[in-house]
Amino acid sequence: MFERLPSRWMLALKKVGYWIWLIPVLGIPLSYYWSQGSAHADAWPWLVISVVFGVIPLLDFIVGRDPANPDECDEVPALEAQGYYRLLSLATVPLLLAMLVWSGWIFASYEGWSWIGQLGWVLSVGTVMGAIGITVSHELIHKDPKLEQNAGGLLLAAVCYAGFKVEHVRGHHVHVSTPEDASSSRFGQSLYAFLPHAYKHNFLNAWKLEAERLKRRSLPALHWRNELIWWYAISALFLLGFTLALGALGALFFLGQAVIAFTLLEIVNYVEHYGLHRRKLDNGRYERTNAHHSWNSNFLLTNLFLFHLQRHSDHHAYAKRRYQVLRHFDDSPQLPNGYAGMIVLAVFPPLWRAVMDPKVRAYYAGEEHQLSESQPT
């Protein structure tokens, strides 16, 4: 639909379009409002998750792809200098946290839902915190300014996954698409084999990396300069606040949405690197990360929702590039749908392998011997 628009028109469209993240955030209170007095009250809390994983994959096909890249000389410097894009990402933080607190209060106090409606509510809020909250935190923790670093850390603390702030930047980006990275899914590995390793690796490797950083400064791991201690303390304060204010239901809600959010993150990790690998060189090191080591998805609608996260190849090649200037590369491996649609496929391993295994084999045509179905340990 938009593939033939001139680049400048597309940039202008996306400048406004990035605000589309407000739709799922506002969908949470709207679903509560519409459920009041409804004969199908338990159905409305499922609205957001149904739209995200049912409607958006179809809309991605209808809206189409976005091949436009900003001109490196004329447009990229101007786009990177505009504070508008930085403020747009930072604006998500207070709104998401306010939505989270309000949603917890509704969960604990509203009596119009059975457990079915309550489950849908937690799943929908967790989906928003994962899809929007963690996506924005991912953008922010890659940037140097302290404000952005801390804002990203706060969003991760709100979903009890602070280790991602350390492990993703200092671990995943170093070892991506190698056997050393449990956040890079192997060829033939199911989502359900991947997730336990990803959870464990994110937590343990974050502590290991932070301990190594402190050791280089001649400091012990359990030191007040260990940022993980502070971020996990903030998560504990979130949990304490929800518990004291809203009781056991408040605690259940907070922990439930957190699990959904960080599980969604790890499913996206699974999708982003499935079956791709960096070649090992004669010196024992791996080739430099480039645009061939991540799956790209150039569907416009989901890219607007996710701040260009789906232009993941360019992100891994140039991790500090801001979202508004991430590029599409035709020769990067390409996903057949946006992340929402690929997540739906991933939760059904036979469907996932039927779609993705041929794509991996085709991408490595002539090098199939490098593919391995062995699982990480």
TrEMBL record:
The record's annotation in CDD domains points to:
Alkane-hydroxylase (cd03512)
- Could you list the residue ranges that cross the membrane? 16-34, 46-63, 84-107, 113-136, 228-246, 252-271
Q: One GO BP annotation here?
A: lipid metabolic process
Which top-level group of life is the source organism from? Bacteria
Give the molecular function GO annotations: metal ion binding; monooxygenase activity
Keyword line: Cell inner membrane, Cell membrane, Iron, Membrane, Metal-binding, Monooxygenase, Oxidoreductase, Transmembrane, Transmembrane helix
Q: Which InterPro entries does its entry note?
A: AlkB/XylM, FA_desaturase_dom
Q: What region holds the Fatty acid desaturase domain?
A: 114-342
The record's subcellular locations are:
Cell inner membrane
User: What cellular-component terms does GO give this entry?
Assistant: plasma membrane
Q: Name one Pfam family in it.
A: FA_desaturase
Q: What is its main location?
A: membrane
Give yes or no: UniProt keyword Coiled coil: no
Say which family it is in.
Belongs to the fatty acid desaturase type 1 family. AlkB subfamily.
PANTHER family recorded = ALKANE 1-MONOOXYGENASE 1 (PTHR38674)
User: Can you name this protein?
Assistant: Alkane 1-monooxygenase
Instruction: Tell me the organism.
Output: Pseudomonas sihuiensis
